[in-house]
Amino acid sequence: xxxxxxxxxxxxxxxxxxxxxxxxxxxxxxxxxxxxxxxxxxxxxxxxxxxxxxxxxxxxxxxxxxxxxxxxxxxxxxxxxxxxxxxxxxxxxxxxxxxxxxxxxxxxxxxxxxxxxxxxxxxxxxxxxxxxxx
Length: 134
Ligand SMILES: [Zn+2]
Known about the structure:
Blueprint: H1 3-14, E1 17-21, E2 27-28, E3 46-50, E4 54-63, E5 76-83, E6 88-93, E7 106-113, E8 125-131
Antiparallel strand pairs: 1-2, 1-3, 4-5, 4-7, 5-6, 7-8
The structure holds zinc ion.
């Protein structure tokens, strides 16, 4: 991985960025290079767009069969969250009892540790979702 690629990945992982098509104002997540609606006319018009981090649970499932490195937190819930901007983002739901999770529940993205320190000494962080009081 090149240094530039590394920092691009960090940027989109630590900030919930999608892209906005300046031609039609549609917002996309994850980042797209070309707007599927505008196609050729969107080339060079895709702008970085920071999502608010707020959304509602669109659907979710409880995962019982987690990979070994996640054994301490299983079972856990993974949700598809419909963000205020209309895009859907998949992420783990934290700080909530599994039986309290409902479709339509208000949540917001929080930056959390995702895994333990790997062999390269890097601790991975990423976005998870936590309940939000309206
Ligand atoms: Zn467009």
